[in-house]
Structure formats: structure tokens, C-alpha cells
Amino acid sequence: RFIACPRLARTVQQCLQRPAGPGPQPALLEFAPGPGILTQTLLNAGIRVVALESNLSYLQNLQSLENSLDGQLQVIYGDFFRLDPLVSGTLKPPAVSSEKLFETMGVTAVPWKADVPLRIFGIMPDTLERNRLWRLLFGLYECNSIYKYGRVELNLFVSEKEYKVLTAKPGEMGAYQALTVLVQIGCEVELLH
Where does the chain bind S-adenosyl-L-methionine (predicted)? Predict the structure, then answer.
């Protein structure tokens, strides 16, 4: 699951593009970029991208693109959904420590009242989508993993079913759940396009 259509890539790039404001633009972590069509579109727009790819068949092409650029793209072998696994000892790729990942990216911790130090873009896999959303939410309330460094802007493609759960209103039977309440308290959910 990745973006393969250049037109969709341009739409996503426009949604992710921020007007230049004071201070440096936050880093953009793109997980599972696949063949890199969105990655190339983001790079063409002048956005600095860190690509976190776990599929070895796409990794070589992304690394080749990285080598042809002057630091605008950084490619890391890793799986976003295997960040900070609950095991001790050395991690075997594609498992990644968020601390090591952010150190490599040059992201430093900022207070939660400061601007967002990191933007993340990716497509939620079909399998275990609800579990993955819960894990992201637990990390938010525990202020660990990707949230250790401050607020994070998550730009995710999710299924329509999960989007309806995340945005449900009280009284919407079947859709309004504990996940709904916790997400709406801790996050601003916005349909970008």
C-alpha cells in the first residue's frame, strides 16, 4: 500500500506543504514509501524527507535516489509499526528504536507547547489497523515513542471504517467507542482531502 499515482502524490504534497514561517520547517518522516512516487514529489517541492522503508525490494531504489541528492532525502531501513518493540536487547531490522531514529534524523525534543518538531505521513496497512491506531494512541498518552520529542503531526491514510470511528459523535451506535473519545480528546482529527 503506497501511492503510485503522480496526481494523488501532488494532492498529498499540497496537503502536507506548509507555508514558510519563522524557524525551520519540521522534518517529514514518510513511512513505507514504496517506489517513491510521493517521495520524489515531496523532494521536487523542496521538502526534506526521511523515508522509513521496510521492504527490501524498494530500499535499493530509494537509496539510489538518496545518493543522487545533497542531503534532502535520508533513507532508513525500518518499519514504522515496529518502532520501540517491547523487547530488550539489540533490535533486529526492520525493528527500530524511535530514539535512534530521531537522533539519526536530527530531531530534538521540544516542549509540548512549542511547534511540531516532526510530521509523519503514511498509509495504514489493512491488517490490524485498529490495533495500530490504539498503539499510536497509547504512545500519545504515555508521551513515549514518537511523542517523546513533543507533539507530532500524523498524516495518515486510514480506511473509511476507522475514519468513521475516529470522528463519530455521541449517539452514533457502533461507531462511537472508547477509541473515538480518547482520540478526540488527545488529537485534532481533520479530513485533509
Answer: 3, 53, 79
pLDDT, tens only, 20-73 = 556 667 779 999 999 999 999 999 998 999 999 999 999 999 999 999 988 899
User: 3: annotated binding-site residue?
Assistant: yes
Q: Give the orientation angle of helix 37-44 with respect to helix 56-67, to 10 degrees.
A: 20
The response to whether 66 counts as a known ligand-binding position is no
185 is in an annotated binding site: no
List, in order of start, the domains of the chain with CATH numbers. 6-157 (3.40.50.150), 159-192 (no CATH)
In this model, does residue 19 exceed pLDDT 70? no
How does DSSP assign 52-70, residue by residue? EE--HHHHHHHHHHHHTSS
